[in-house]
Q: What sequence folds into this?
């Protein structure tokens, strides 16, 4: 199954609403069978966690959210914490590093910035950090100044927040 089919099957808006699957498959396809661990910020109904679990063949799926119900399933490590607060993330993540971090938590620019500043060192060299659902053009300069690649998918689905920012940690 494609990642887009898995997002749809599990009820995630990552494909049906935003059209992110093709970008993720391009970025992460080469490590699909070897990625040891990923982190998603924002759990919501856990639909994307189920899709990631089914798509990545061996990866442990870590997730934090400051409000969602914390679920436990095989290969999942879900915790309640504020992704912007280092003391909270350190308490639940320990010394974990990740080959992929998906930031789908707070959708305000300041929340996305603070989360990246807090978690960027947890990304392994060559790892990929993706910020989802960026609201319009107003803050794109911030991402571009930090060597993020902006992927604007608004023409595909017509939603104002169909923007990803992708950062690869230097090796």
A:
């Amino acid at each position: 199954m494609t990642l887009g089919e898995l997002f749809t099957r599990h009820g995630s808006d990552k494909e049906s609403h935003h059209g992110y699957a093709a970008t993720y498959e391009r970025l992460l396809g080469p490590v699909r069978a070897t990625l040891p661990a990923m982190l998603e910020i924002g759990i919501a109904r856990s639909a994307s966690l189920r899709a990631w679990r089914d798509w990545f063949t061996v990866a442990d799926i870590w997730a934090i959210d400051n409000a969602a119900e914390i679920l436990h399933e095989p290969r999942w490590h879900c915790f309640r914490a504020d992704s912007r607060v280092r003391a909270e993330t350190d308490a639940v993540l320990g010394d974990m590093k990740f080959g992929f971090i998906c930031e789908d938590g707070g959708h305000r620019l300041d929340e996305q910035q603070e989360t990246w500043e807090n978690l960027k060192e947890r990304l392994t060299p060559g790892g990929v950090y993706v910020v989802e659902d960026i609201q319009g053009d107003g803050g794109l300069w911030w991402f571009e100044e930090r060597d993020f690649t902006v992927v604007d998918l608004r023409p595909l689905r017509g939603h104002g927040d169909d923007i990803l920012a992708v950062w690869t940690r230097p090796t």
Notes: The chain is about 35% helix and 25% strand. The mean pLDDT is 90. The CA atoms of residues 59 and 167 lie 20 Å apart. Helices lie at 3-10, 13-16, 21-28, 47-55, 86-93, 109-119, 140-145, 154-157.
